[in-house]
Design a protein that fits this description.
alpha/beta, Aspartate Aminotransferase, domain 1, 2 domains, 3-stranded antiparallel beta sheet, 12 helices, 14 strands, globular, binds pyridoxal-5'-phosphate
């Protein structure tokens, strides 16, 4: 590789987040076979640590091979059969993607919408469930990375379950950075990614399925359309159930080492302490930006992703280019309807530090002079 590449950037965008050197070293460990008992021990430990980070006892908790979108597709394709009715909450790019993915699985999708930057209210979902009583599941994004909006979820499962539906959650930008209680909040199926608040390279998608979701999958009349993501086969490998561990596909061995180390780091810090750190760093950044006259777009901002209005007169691409070239800092542009209007500053996992907050504030002040 060119000796100038890759540079060591400070990744303060919407993901990937900075990866600690401990995780990069883990990636370089000797590759084992995917049925080697040593590897299976590592995989079992990853699943157990994922349960701790998701705050769940769900036996079926494992890393899907692929990025966060593979987690979304895995849950959609396993829970949906053609002709099912589902509700998807859409208030940004990722809710829109969930709708698209579920439609591709053959579902009739009823969208519950909110303006970009707003969150979905519980009574909107209640009204939609009354209007569509055959709804099988309600999909919602906990951390909408395109708008920075932080979706409350407490109490949502009670409503959804009372109508006989499942609650499906996208936690790609919240897992490991925001409070998230899968069992206490009654979430039935959830997916995430490794490269946001877990600070691991992209490549695995932690998922977890509860008992209601298992019952739905066991009662399917049709085969899961995706062979690769069919949980009825994957679960034999990941949980060792149903006749022991057999080859399905070759697990991404070295990525599993990396996730193992990333989860070790999360649990060494402590989940509560890590969540508190994300909040503290968000508030530190927010105070600095607001002192510069820069405002936040969402009313309820995420701690892991700060979506701000581009100040009047500032050059969108030019500013981001100078941050990257002069300071080595990556921040994100606006996505979808916010393109050209917003910047997104991620403070995720290993990147959520006072040093990075003060650095990006100083750099922005200089570039915006
Ligand atoms: C990043 C992200 C995804 C997609 O994850 P990939 O790893 O890019 O496939 C899905 N949902 C949300 C909310 C995200 O932020």
């Amino acid at each position: 590789m060119n000796t100038q590449f890759p540079a060591e950037r400070i990744l303060l965008g919407p993901g990937p987040s900075p990866v600690p050197s401990r995780v990069l070293r883990a990636l370089g460990a000797p590759t084992l076979g995917h049925l080697d008992p040593q590897y299976l021990t590592i995989m079992d430990e990853v699943c157990e640590m994922l349960r701790q980070v998701f705050r769940t006892k769900n036996a079926l908790t494992f890393p899907v091979s692929g990025t966060g979108m593979a987690g979304m597709e895995c849950i959609a394709t396993n829970l949906i059969e053609p002709g099912d009715e589902v509700i998807v909450c859409v208030n940004g790019v990722f809710g829109g993607r969930m709708k698209d993915v579920m439609e591709r699985c053959g579902a009739t999708v009823h969208a519950v919408e909110a303006a970009w930057g707003d969150v979905i209210e519980l009574d909107q979902i209640a009204a939609a469930l009354d209007q569509h009583p055959k709804t099988k599941l309600v999909g919602i994004v906990h951390a909408e990375t395109s708008t920075g909006a932080h979706q409350p979820l407490e109490g949502f499962a009670d409503l959804v379950h009372s109508k006989g539906a499942l609650l499906v959650v996208d936690a790609v930008t919240s897992l490991g950075g925001h409070e998230l209680k899968v069992d206490e909040w009654g979430i039935d199926a959830i997916y995430s990614g490794t490269q946001k608040c877990l600070s691991c390279p992209p490549g695995l998608a932690p998922v977890s399925f509860g008992d209601r979701a298992l019952a739905i999958m066991d009662a399917r009349k049709t085969k899961v359309q995706s062979w690769y993501l069919d949980v009825s086969m994957l679960r034999k490998y990941y949980t060792g159930g149903g006749g022991g561990r057999v080859y399905h596909h070759t697990a991404p061995i070295n990525m599993t080492y990396a996730l193992h180390e990333a989860l070790n780091i999360v649990l060494e810090e402590g989940l509560d302490a890590r969540i508190a750190r994300h909040e503290k760093m968000h508030l530190r950044l927010r105070a600095g930006l607001e002192a510069m006259g820069i405002s936040y777009i969402p009313k309820r901002s995420l701690h892991s992703l700060n979506c701000i209005s581009i100040p009047a007169g500032a050059d969108d691409a030019g500013t981001r280019k100078r941050l990257l070239e002069e300071y080595g800092i990556e921040i994100g542009s606006g996505l979808g309807v916010m393109a050209g209007k917003a910047w997104r500053i991620g403070l995720m996992g290993h990147g959520s530090t006072a040093r990075n907050v003060d650095l990006v504030l100083t750099a922005l002040r200089e570039v915006l002079k």
